[in-house]
Amino acid sequence: MENENNNSVKAILWIAGIIFFVWLIFFSDNSSKPERITEDFENGNSIDMEVDRSIISDNWECTSDCSGHDAGYEWAEDNGITDAGDCGGKSESFIEGCEAYANENY
Questions:
Q1: Would you call 94 exposed, middle or buried from its count of C-beta atoms within 10 A (0-12, 13-18, 19+)?
Q2: CA distance 56 to 45
Q3: Is the pTM here over 0.70, yes or no?
Q4: How far apart (Å, rounded) are the C-alpha atoms in residues 99 and 93?
Q5: How far apart are CA 59 and CA 53, in angstroms?
Q6: d(Cα 85, Cα 89) in Å, to the nearest integer?
Q7: Residues 93, 69 contacting (CB under 8 angstroms)
């Protein structure tokens, strides 16, 4: 009888371990960690920066036509914005569009 109880406990622990590893692989969220990229230039200089991929145009949650996001994205493109920290304005959607351009292109 005691041997059967030990086998049951072992089986339960194995199942719990398997469930934990499946959860860890499929359901743990690593996307919130910013990505780091390094760009080396011909003149010998390099730049290392953090890119937040959660702010890209594919993640826009527009309330209607996304015109604010589009305007911020186009403004950043026209002005060569390379750092999301340089984005500003009165409209949150405009700022998000600007940040998306910076994060996607630099």
A1: buried
A2: 27
A3: no
A4: 10
A5: 9
A6: 12
A7: yes
**Kind and range of the H or E run holding 5:** helix 2-27
Residue bearing tokens 């403004």: 75
Q: Mean of the pLDDT values across residues 42-53? A: 71
3-state SS assignment for residue 77: helix
* Average pLDDT of the residues in 66-91: 90
For position 81, what pLDDT does the model report? 93
The DSSP element (H or E) to which 51 belongs, if any, is strand 46-51
Q: Note whether 100 and 86 are within 8 A (CB).
A: no
Task: Please compute the mean of the pLDDT values over residues 2-24 and round it to a whole number.
Answer: 75
Integer-rounded Cα Rg, in Å, for the chain is: 23
* Residue ranges per structural domain of the chain: 1-30, 31-105
